[in-house]
Amino acid sequence: MSDERRRLSPWTDSVDDVEAVPSVPRRWNRRNDYDDSGYLWFRTPVRSADIVEATDHPRQYEYTVNGRKRVKSGSATTTLGTKVELNGKTVAIFKYKGGLYAIQNACPHQAASLHLGDIEDIDGTLCISCPRHKWPFSLEDGQCLLPVNCQAECYPIRVRQERDGSEILYVGFTAFSDTLFHDDSF
C-alpha cells in the first residue's frame, strides 16, 4: 500500500486505508493561528459551492438629499450569508473573495440576524454590518468597529472533501454547548 493511501484516522488511533484527498487550497486556511486539534469540528449541511460569493453581488449606494449614504432600493436583493444550526448555536457563514468566514448569527447588540447583513471593507477590515443598526463587526475577530465594548464570536471554518468529491464545510467549536445536554422535559 502506498504512503499516500495510508493516514491516521481522525476518530481513532489506527491507520486507515483511504483514498488520497487533494490538499485544500491555501485560501481556505485563512486563519493560520487555529490549531485544528483544539476544536470540535461540526459538519454543516452546506457545500462550499452553495455559499454566495459576496463580490458577485455588490450593493449599489445612493445619497439622500441631506447627504446620507444608503443602499439603493432593489440592489440588496441577494442574501449574502448562510445560516446554520450547529452545536446548539446559530452560525452565519460568508464567502468573500474565496475566503470563508463563520460568525455568530445573533448580533451581540440587539440580536438581529447577521446573515442578512451587508459585507463591507472598512479601512482594510472585512466586516459584516448588522441589518438593524448597521454596526460593523469584523469577520476576523468579531470586534465591533464602533467605540463600544461589543464583540461577536467568530469560529474557524474548514472545507473537507467528501468521498463523492463535494466540498463540505465544517465549523470548529472549543467545547460542546450546554444546550445540547439540557432537556426541559425532565
Query: How many beta strands in the DSSP annotation?
Result: 14
Mean pLDDT value = 77
Q: How large is the share of residues in beta strands?
A: 35-45%
How many individual helices? 0
Q: Tell me the number of structural domains.
A: 1
Strand order of the largest sheet: 6-7-8-12
Q: Rounded to an integer, what's the Rg over CA atoms?
A: 19 Å
In CATH, the topology is named Rieske Iron-sulfur Protein
SSE series = EEEEEEEEEEEEEE
Structural class by sheet pairing and helices = mainly beta
Write down the CATH class: Mainly Beta
CATH superfamily placement: Rieske [2Fe-2S] iron-sulphur domain
Task: Please give the share of residues in helix.
Answer: under 10%
Shape: globular
The CATH architecture can be given as 3-layer Sandwich
Uncertain spans, ≥5 residues at pLDDT below 50? Answer: 1-33
Reported for the largest beta sheet, the result is: 4 strands, antiparallel
How far apart the termini lie comes to 52 Å
Protein name: Rieske domain-containing protein
Pfam families: Rieske_2 (PF13806)
Organism: Hyaloperonospora brassicae
InterPro entries: Rieske-like_NirD (IPR012748), Rieske_2Fe-2S (IPR017941), Rieske_2Fe-2S_sf (IPR036922)
What are the main properties of this structure?
disordered N terminus, mainly beta, 186 residues, iron-sulfur, nitrite reductase [NAD(P)H] activity, Rieske Iron-sulfur Protein
